[in-house]
Amino acid sequence: MRVVMAGGGTGGHIYPAIAIADKIKRRRPDSEILFIGARRGMEKDIVPAHGYELRLIDVRGFDRRRLCRNAGAALALARAFRELRRILRDFAPDLVIGTGGYVSGPVLRAAGKAGIPAYIHEQNAFPGMANRLAERYAEKVFVAFAESGRYFKNKDKIVVTGNPVRREFAARGLVPYREKLGVEAHAFVLLVFGGSLGARAVNEALFSILKELWAEEDLRLFFISGSRYYAEARAAFAACGIAADGRFRVMEYTDAICAYMCAADLVISRAGALTVSEITACGRASVLIPSPNVTGNHQFFNAKSVADRGGALLIREAELSPARLLDAVLRLKNNKTLLNRMSAASESLGRLDAADRIYERITEGLPQGVI
């Protein structure tokens, strides 16, 4: 089976594509997979690091407010379509999967024009423009949140799959993460993070309540500051007289987010699609603080999808204050019934088989010789 994966710009589009590709390779080791990405996207580093071949094309977003600045983007898009026709002709894929970002739309369109079966995976509760425009070329539209289906025109194409999450989440109940992280069984564990770069508003709210949290003797804090704010975070902890590597721990970044989520009782974070999917895959209660600085305010819709079902508390950044954050933490810490109810609601939304669902759908229509 020969597959083209198209998606990029941010990790939120890239990692689901990699998870789907990994599933295809596990189910069909002889499959050949080619990624197509944008020269300006994160995929140029991430995809090769995962062992996949990558072709880069020059595509960029259009400025909807200042149309006069779009001449360069339009010329680049015209060149990209010519290059994509050559790539698809030479690679001859059996199918194409787009996961969003600037590059996804042109690849799906080129596949549709060439008569190649194409599929979309949408990670967010509010779909990106690239995927909405490319719907016409897709056989099926796989969505992580049922709510996003309402934004696509052809409801018959919608398949709710969830977001593919990393393999370690499937084994979450088999690993004693608290023991591995040196956390006592009786402790209340709080995990706070704002993404790989960090989130200033979340960090500052946390810094303002450090002393109150420290006074809770059975509370343990894992704080992932983000690369931009690591030095600032350690200074804030020191200013409160709190060691950053004991009962409270500060980290710049971790690849072991599954371990910390599974060890936590409560997670405080932004509401990126993959973050929300990983939290629900672990079945953890959460306080979600959506970033207001994202296209279409999609993090708000991601958070609302979980909050509406009782798995999270949603706090808009404009309404975030130290007092409100502290109240949320202590209310859940001191009300195990509520915490457990939220955890159960979160777990009911978690999907560990998203990649399997996608694999089954993309292969069901292929000739037997290809599968």
What would you say this structure looks like, in words?
This protein has 371 residues and is an alpha/beta fold. It folds into 2 domains: 2-165 and 352-363, Rossmann fold; 168-349, Glycogen Phosphorylase B (Rossmann fold, 3-Layer(aba) Sandwich), CATH 3.40.50.2000. It contains 15 helices and 13 strands. The chain has helices at residues 11-27, 43-49, 71-91, 104-113, 129-134, 177-181, 200-207, 210-214, 230-239, 257-263, 273-282, 298-307, 322-333, 336-349, 354-363; strands spanning 2-6, 32-38, 53-57, 95-98, 118-122, 140-143, 158-160, 188-193, 219-224, 248-251, 266-269, 285-288, 312-314. A 7-stranded parallel sheet has the order 3-2-1-4-5-6-7, with helices on both faces. Helix 12 links the parallel strand 12 (285-288) and strand 13. Helix 3 packs across helix 4. The model has no long low-confidence stretch (mean pLDDT 91).
Produce the secondary structure layout:
Blueprint: E1 2-6, H1 11-27, E2 32-38, H2 43-49, E3 53-57, H3 71-91, E4 95-98, H4 104-113, E5 118-122, H5 129-134, E6 140-143, E7 158-160, H6 177-181, E8 188-193, H7 200-207, H8 210-214, E9 219-224, H9 230-239, E10 248-251, H10 257-263, E11 266-269, H11 273-282, E12 285-288, H12 298-307, E13 312-314, H13 322-333, H14 336-349, H15 354-363
